[in-house]
Design brief:
By secondary structure, this protein is α/β, with parallel strands linked by helices. About 40% of the residues lie in helices and about 20% in strands.
Length: about 220
């Protein structure tokens, strides 16, 4: 049976509390599927490959708000900076500096989220909460020319244990709160907690997420 993207979006929107941004994770889905979501009113889309983002941004309407949500290699930063308004996956100082340099060269101001690693999986990228709290200093913020740190992003462990998932999300939100009350006090732009996907977003929202990344529920299984 064909997936009704517009129906799926309507169902999802009716469930999401006010104040929570929906990022439609469109990676690996064709432009036609994105266009159906666009025609149903969706404007924020998440891609995880620089070349795919570049191709879709050139093909689809200009008022789409592109987010980059995948692991970003420094040699692909230029392509992403040209199109994305928000990069969710800043997982090292090297990457942050590369985005800052390329955004400055392009004359753009780019929003970024700092990626937290709290999940059990060793393969995930990101800062541990302690690393992040040590990394972000007033000096770091003052040194950035074209990047605006707008919040944090994280994923829960890929387990069938709601208690563990809830605990992971709580740790991400707690780290955001600590940053917000210290180094980002007086920085209203630091306001985003991006956590929660198709299978766990209700728990994430319950634990303080205000941006969720949902793909499968909207578009169906990905086409590889």
């Amino acid at each position: 049976m064909a997936v009704s993207i517009s129906n799926n979006l309507a169902s999802l929107r009716s469930s999401i509390p006010e104040g929570v941004t929906l990022v439609a994770v469109s990676k690996f889905h064709p432009a036609e599927a994105l266009m159906e979501a666009y025609q149903a009113g969706q404007r924020v889309f998440g891609e995880s490959r620089a070349l795919e983002l570049e191709a879709k941004a050139q093909e689809l309407p200009g008022d789409i708000d592109w987010h980059f949500i995948g692991h970003l290699q420094t040699n692909k930063v230029r392509k992403v900076v040209g199109h994305a308004s928000l990069i969710h996956s800043i997982d090292s100082e090297r990457l942050l500096r590369a985005v800052d340099e390329e955004a400055a060269k392009a004359g753009r101001r780019i929003g970024v989220l700092l990626q937290l690693h709290v999940a059990r999986e060793e393969t995930k990228f990101g800062f541990t909460p302690d690393e992040l709290l040590e990394f972000v200093t007033p000096g770091l913020l003052a040194s950035l020319k074209a990047v605006e740190i707008r919040g944090v992003m994280g994923m829960a462990s890929n387990v069938d244990d709601d208690t563990r998932i809830r605990s992971d999300f709580r740790e991400i939100r707690s780290t955001f709160d600590r940053l917000k009350t210290t180094v980002f006090a007086g920085h209203p732009e630091f306001s985003t907690v991006s956590m929660g996907m198709s299978h766990d977003w209700p728990i994430a929202v319950d634990e303080g997420s205000n941006m969720i990344r949902v793909g499968t529920f909207i578009f169906g299984e990905r086409e590889y």
